Amino acid sequence: MTRITQGCFSLLPDLTDDQIKAQIEYCIKMGFAVSIEWTDDPHPRNCYWEMWGLPLFDITDASAIMYEIGEARKAYPNCYIKINAFNNERCVESTAVSFMIQRPSYEPGF
Predict the structure, then answer these.
(1) Which uninterrupted H or E stretch holds 36?
(2) What are the tens digits of pLDDT across the range 17-67?
(3) Could you give the C-alpha distances from 11 to 7, 36, 50, 87, 100, in angstroms and in order?
(4) Cβ-proximal residues to 94 (8 Å cutoff; 6+ apart), any chain
(5) Paired residues of 51 in beta bridges
(6) DSSP string spanning 73-103?
(7) What residues contact residue 27 under an 8 Å CB cut-off, 6+ apart?
(8) Residue 88 in this model has a pLDDT that exceeds 60
(9) Which residues lie closer than 8 Å to 16 by C-beta, 6 or more apart?
């Protein structure tokens, strides 16, 4: 079976919800804006995944983001879902953290 490897942690086993929450808490502590994205086409050239709502600016509680993750998982159970965290320290939105949090049960590859 092919396993898509993109973003941080992609060569590790899938993260548990507690591990995902810990990463989100780190992003919040660093002042990063977190967003949730999904796609059914994870090709590396497909860098524009669909956004789940708006980026979660000014969220200080990881539980609120975990709730949104749960809703995205319900809506797209057979798609890829990832978390992005943006650092605007230099007045540009650069990705500081990006990792997949859900994969479909079957990954066909490219």
Answers:
(1) strand 33-39
(2) 999 999 999 999 999 999 999 998 887 778 789 999 888 888 999 999 999
(3) 9, 20, 23, 24, 11
(4) 86, 87, 88
(5) 37
(6) HHH-TTSEEEEEEEE-TTSS-EEEEEEEEE-
(7) 34, 83, 85, 96, 97
(8) yes
(9) none
Residue 5, token pair as written in the block = 């490897």
Q: Per the structure block, which two tokens stand in for 110? A: 């490219």
CB atoms within 10 A of CB 85: 23
Q: Other CB atoms closer than 10 Å to residue 18's CB: what's the count?
A: 8
Q: Calculate the dihedral angle through the C-alpha atoms of 93, 97, 103, 107, rounding to the nearest 10 degrees.
A: 80
Helices (H), 1-110: 17-29, 62-75
